[in-house]
Amino acid sequence: MNTLELLKAARERISSEESWTQGAFAENSDGAPVMVKSPEACRWCAIGALESISPPDEPLVFRRAFRELSATLDDFGWDRRMAAYNDMSSHKQVLFLYDVTIRRLEEQCQK
What we know:
Blueprint lengths: L2 H11 L12 E2 L15 E2 L1 H8 L5 H18 L5 H7 L2 H20 L1
Antiparallel strand pairs: 1-2
């Protein structure tokens, strides 16, 4: 899995508002925090979605994807951590962060 594939899969994981959360990396159906790769997890934040799908044998893929999302936040003028962006933004804004990052990487791949 490469960085772009991971970003697309993570975005898909939180594409519905019911599969996204704030204040925890992942939650179960009762709203209790769980580990991001737990079989009980059914809601993830922007970072938890990335981590939940990232291949355990390829840690650099997660780091690159996280760095790309952070670069997009820098472009937005956001000067806080990505977790704060997730927790202080709407679901649509978090998806927009993913969309802009994915679009930028796709454009870079075409060059």
